[in-house]
Specification:
disordered N terminus, four-stranded mixed beta sheet, Helicase, Ruva Protein, domain 3, disordered C terminus, Zinc Finger, Delta Prime, domain 3, elongated, 24 helices, five-stranded parallel beta sheet, alpha/beta, Rossmann fold
Amino acid sequence: MRPLPLKGTDALARRALYREYRPELFSEVIGQDHITTILKNQVREGKLSHAYLFCGSRGTGKTTSAKILSRAVNCLSPKDGEPCGECTACRLIKNGSADVIEIDAASNNSVDNVRSLIEQAQFAPLELKYRVFIIDEVHMLSNAAFNALLKTLEEPPKHVLFILATTEPQKLPATIISRCQRFDFHRLTIAHIVANLTSVLEKAGASIEPNGLRLIARAADGGMRDALSLADQCLSYAGDHVTEQDVLDALGSVSSAVLEDTAKALLSGNAADAVRALDDVVRNGRDLGVFLADLSKHFRALLLAKTCGDCADLIDCTDDQMARYLKVAKDADEARILYAMEQILAVQNKLRLFPAPRIPIEAAFVRICRPVDDTSFAALEARVALIEARPVTTLSSLPDGKATSPCTGEARRDDPHDDPVPPWDEPPMLEEPPEPVYESEPEPTPNVPATTPQSPVGASFPDKGSSTPAPAISGEAETVWEAAKKKIMELNPMVYFYVKDTRGAALDGDTLTVEFPATQESSMNGMRAERNLKIAKDAIEAVRPKTTLVFRLAALLDKNEEKLKELFGSSLTIK
């Protein structure tokens, strides 16, 4: 590694970048033009306030602006509201003047400290025009200290100027805020931070690759001081020429490619790939807390891309990165993204409580990919979105009358003897119901009731193309099935979601026919899972013992062409 060239012979004499290159003029303060313009105008016109309140998050320029203002109001020859930096007053303040007093309220927060400050304010300045008091983290003062400061802050001597700085203005009494001119400092954008970092590094004789600068700017979270400190850390790690990989190594972050691969695996329900991606992160020695923070930001970007479309201004990213977000968000479901975000944020908040943080992250990844046992509404939405993302077979007509699957293009067999395994004997799967193979139902002989092949739990799925006429709607069937649906809701809300739009069509002895709407074939396929059928059977058994369920698609029971057209629209052609 090549160390950063140091000024002077003693390495300990080198100061941090944020101290060495602190702005000296209002025009050098980044991203706060709405504040610096007002301050310059007040200095130029001589219309100063007796007290200022600077509010904003860390590293946005509050203390820097206070120092510049203290020089500007005392400068002997200000230039357009800016301190000249050359006069006697500017040099005195730069070297430390007794008339510019900086107080840290975090460690000087008692009423006695404020009384001492008030006593000093009564004396005229020794060398300058104004005696300036800069009180940093003023929200840390006690209530008694605030009360002691009130009168002096409202009517201070003409030679005194108060500048209060805080990151938490909501903790200040309204009586203090009302006596000050308040200025709210904005969080800096990535573009502002990158531009200022580039300028500072040029002055320091060092460089960081553009992608590395953006990584630092993102990690700084809107604070310029944080960005300069991280840049200092990277320069100490890699020397005066830092690559993107050097920045990743120094910050303990992962590349955007790793985040994208992990997000795709989670959204597609591929738990194996998601867990392997986490294993790569651990093997590369990355900080898991940083990884989860980056992953949650990545999902935020996907959610905004899904919701707002092209929103590079909200995400603060490049056009190329925005295009990648849009591509992934287009194929993802909003419910899945929200559920993944909730799980990641939940484990992120609890990560410090676990001695082995990898384990809860793996558990969260599997839960995101398989939201089966989670009965929360968010998990229900995520599971439905995952099921609906699967390709579903629909009917289309061929000249020879055979139905085909749009996924495979192959004709489906209508002969019940072509397939040795009937569909109700296929191994059911809860996560991904098998593509159904529909078979003909034999015509019932006269005076002999038609029999329906029974599933292991007393429910069946007759042929999709059956010509059996639709049974008339029975009031008793409706009543029995509505009671059964309420029982299903009590047993498992997930299964209820499949059957909530169904209706009891007919009750013939101990056989209840349940109709699914024509557009919900995927829901009927979901009920093929043994676990789901078992819950439905338990529910009907509790309502009407010894009753067998028969599930049908309503549209497929009616041979009337106009009815089929009404249900299927242009998606069905009848020859």
